[in-house]
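[stage:ingest] chain + small molecule (glutamine)
[stage:ingest] validated
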Amino acid sequence: MKAVDFITQIRNGDIDVVEHTRKVIEQIKKINKEYHYFNAVSEKEALEQAEKVAKNPSGKLAGLPVSFKDAICVKGVETTAGSRILKGYRPTFDATVVERVKKEGGIVIGKTSQDEFGFGAFSVNMGIGYEKPLNPFDKERACGGSSGGSGGISQKADFPHISLGESTGGSIVNPASFCGVFGLCPTYGRVSRYGLLDYSNSLDKIGPMAKYADDIALMMEVIAGFDENESTCADKPVDDYTKQIDIDISGMKIGVIKEAFNGADAGVEKAVRGKIAELEGLGAEYEEISLPTAIKFGIPTYYLISTSEASTNLAKYCGMRYGKHEKLEEGFNEYFTKVRSMHLGQEAKRRIILGTFARMAGYRDAYYMKAMAVRTKIIQEYKKAFKEFDALVCPTVSMLPPKFTDIDKLSVLDHYNIDNLTVGPNLAGLPHMNVPVGFEGKLPVGMMLIANHFDENSLIRIGSDLVK
Ligand code: GLN
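[stage:predict] done
[stage:export] tokens:
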């Protein structure tokens, strides 16, 4: 059932919200034992909120179970971004997106599993002590990442549900693709990041993941919009995203990104091209377009900028004010090294080292500053494309969800290259969405739509027309 239909039933009193919430909690605990989609289940808070909603079911999300990636702060509920260094941290406040969801009667059911601090594309770079989420279609395969738990539960839940994920370089659309659901990463600044544990401030975005485009639109209306607590949040009116569902796409012009099919799995290419061919029947036009800079230089640009920002963001987890503490012995340098060595996972350490190197005196101009210049070029390339097209399209990820045994064989660079199609729109701050377009065998395939800044409307319009 779509969230929108469920909420109508709650409002009409056809469903007992407290009883429903109780059942949902039991169900996710059961799913979690097998699939590891949650780092924390917020049973007590969920039931308290359900009692409140029962008395006043007027909110836009009345009674709807909502989960949040673990990097998003929920008051009183353990929030770790999947890292042991934050084990035991219970925020004293709600992130703005959480506050808005609660205000509209949404019920926070838990915190979803992820790569530590968002560092990964498969949800296998787990913090010490955390279990990998398993793909809902095949437990030997990955959910994608880094919002893997959000992708998994969005598919596996047989109750109406929306999850909020976070993307720095593809972490909403990638797991949405591997788990066969919609996932929308909004324009940078469209949704407040207040209360998100930062990975890379100039790239991080929060956005919804769900089975239906209608539910994505509904959640966007709740979470988008100005927030005085967040200086990069845009002060721009929020569109009526749900209205887009009923508008057809006739007359729209869509650019098919040529280079994006190089090296794509044959099954992925077939499903995506098949869906693109349907555009004409729906009244839209499409044409090939080349984006050489974004596809060729996206990966080095993204990894230099994101690790540089991550290395400064993670500096605060040093065993003094934030995160785990240990016994203070020797000098501060030895102490910081001890705490970080003990409690951060391998990939987090690698990113700190890479990012610190890229920003160091003597290397800054050659790496970090150069990456910033290429980022500008990438933005210009997209901006030019949007003079001609309403949206761009390509596969979301070049591969089908891989087996864990195959992921083990990949090099670090192979891991980074998985993001080759998703880093472009993230670097440019452009809204993009995964549309589940079908299956190759039993595995889902995702197609990515990219639109101009603040044009989430086009994504919802096209996505909902293509997949009813
Ligand atoms: N896979 C990318 C990375 O490891 C993207 C992660 C993200 O968007 N949080 O950085």
